[in-house]
Amino acid sequence: MLDIVTYGNEILGKKAESVVEINDAIRTMAAEMFEAMAGKGIGLAGPQVASPLRIFVTNVEGDKPRVFINPEIVLTSQELISIEEGCLSLPRLYLDVIRPESVRVQAWNEKGRPFTVETDGLLARVILHEYDHLEGVLFIDRLKAGKRDRAISQYQKLIKT
């Protein structure tokens, strides 16, 4: 089973590389990513399992489990919304983050088929959060500097307990 890397691991700050070929190794990785987040989260990106590849998976209630390979955000709403987020790479830390309310994303699935999703609500939030991971951005990076510093301090206290 894949291990989830946590804050401080340098891969989380690097932009992920495109998947060149969607093959059995990529399909296995996607399946293992679903296993790694089972019961713990609703989205997981390649860098969070120490893979430098542009892949993430989502499993949001009310939607089917999805695999996004080489995703591209093609549109976000102008309407912004603040919602509490957490992250498997920053366990036990939850903070309000402002993001677009809706998103349109194009990607390939694990079968190598292109698809487009236009959504709002929780699925949009998860897509934007996981896409950020592919760009080397953590949800705490979306906070203002002072709030981000307090969040890092809070996280460091949480992991010591």
Account of the 3D structure:
The protein has 161 residues and is an alpha+beta fold. The chain has a single domain, classed as Peptide Deformylase (Alpha-Beta Complex). The chain has helices at 24-37, 121-134, 145-160; strands at residues 43-45, 55-58, 66-76, 80-87, 90-100, 102-108, 114-120. A hairpin with a 5-residue loop joins strand 6 and strand 7 (114-120). The longest helix is centred in the last third of the chain and has 16 residues, at 145-160. The protein is globular, with a radius of gyration of 15 Å. The two termini are 26 Å apart.
Task: Kindly summarize this structure in a few lines.
The chain has 161 residues and is an alpha+beta fold.
Low-confidence stretches: none
Return the average pLDDT rounded to an integer: 96
What is the straight-line distance between the termini?
26 Å
For the largest sheet, list the strands in their spatial order: 1-2-3-6-7
What structural category characterises the helix and strand content?
A: alpha+beta
| Annotated CATH topology | Peptide Deformylase
* Rg, Cα atoms, Å: 15 Å
| Share of β-strand residues | 25-35%
Q: How many structural units, i.e. domains?
A: 1
Q: What's the CATH H-level homologous superfamily? A: Peptide deformylase
> Which H/E pattern describes the elements?
HEEEEEEEHH
Question: How would you describe this structure in keywords?
Answer:
alpha+beta; Peptide Deformylase; globular; about 160 residues
Outline the secondary-structure elements.
Layout: H1 24-37, E1 43-45, E2 55-58, E3 66-76, E4 80-87, E5 90-100, E6 102-108, E7 114-120, H2 121-134, H3 145-160
Antiparallel strand pairs: 1-2, 2-3, 3-6, 4-5, 6-7
